[in-house]
Amino acid sequence: MAANVLHNGPFTIRTSPQSERMMHFCISMPLPIPHLQFSTKDDRQMVWDIVRRKWMVLTPEELVRQAMIHYLHAQRGYPLNWMAVEKQILVNGMKKRFDILVYNTDMQPWLMVECKAPEIALSNSTFDQIARYNLTIGVTLLAVTNGHDLFCAQINPENQEITWLEDIPAKGNASTAR
After folding, report:
1. Residues with Cβ within 8 Å of residue 93, at least 6 apart in sequence
2. I want to staple 115 with a disulfide (CB 3.0 to 4.6 A). Which of 27, 59, 99, 172 is the partner?
3. Do 155 and 141 form a contact (C-beta atoms < 8 A)?
4. What residue numbers bound the domain in which 36 lies?
5. Do 160 and 124 belong together in one domain?
6. For residue 74, how many other CB atoms are within 10 A of its CB?
7. Is 11 inside any structural domain?
8. Largest CA distance in the chain
9. 38-42, 67-71, 149-153, 174-178: which range is least confident on average?
10. Phi, psi for 60 (deg, rounded to 5)
11. Neighbours of 171 (CB within 10 A)
């Protein structure tokens, strides 16, 4: 059953009956999230994941992850079948999970996104985490977000030089080049 007001940890989500819903964190400007669906199951708040096609427990980080999935799909044009969400990888022999991986036109890993809860400040250590994951995956684009801020970097595979980008490139730029 959908709710109009959801409380989860340090923030409140107010949903409207319109097709576009707004996410309101107590410390940020509203972030539009089109078509995000909420439900309650066993007294737990849930959010529908359009990539995994299942209800997920609503946590602050999950809400940011879902917002980013919708942003990548609706605003940047990436098809849902080009995305993988929370898959296990091995990093230096340790099991880890990336948040979002987007493939390019040849279905090769191209963009990896690390999502943090809104109350987590983004720092060098946050970016170091996704850079370590990238040792295993080898994408050319890395992004980190907490729902308030988004940092995106392009990595030159030849010399590992980083170029900071203003936004995640749109689907039309997801070339086969690596």
Report:
1. none
2. 99
3. yes
4. 5-59
5. yes
6. 13
7. yes
8. 52
9. 174-178
10. -55, -45
11. 16
**91 Rama class: left (phi>0) / alpha (psi -120 to 50) / beta:** beta
> Within its chain, how far is the Cα of 44 from the centroid?
22
**pTM of the complete model beyond 0.90:** no
Which residues on adjacent β-strands are paired with residue 40? 45
Tokens representing residue 2 in the block:
């959908």
Domain-embedded: residue 69: no
CATH number at residue 122: 3.90.1570.30
Angle at CA 65, nearest 5°, toward 25 and 73? 110
Do both 95 and 146 map to the same domain? Answer: yes
Average pLDDT score over residue span 12-19? 33
Check: CB of residue 141 under 8 Å from CB of residue 154: yes
Structural domain tally of the chain?
A: 2
My answer on whether 125 and 48 are in the same domain is: no
Rounded to whole angstroms, the Cα distance separating 147 from 118 reads: 6
Identify the band that residue 177 occupies on the pLDDT scale cut at 50, 70 and 90.
very low
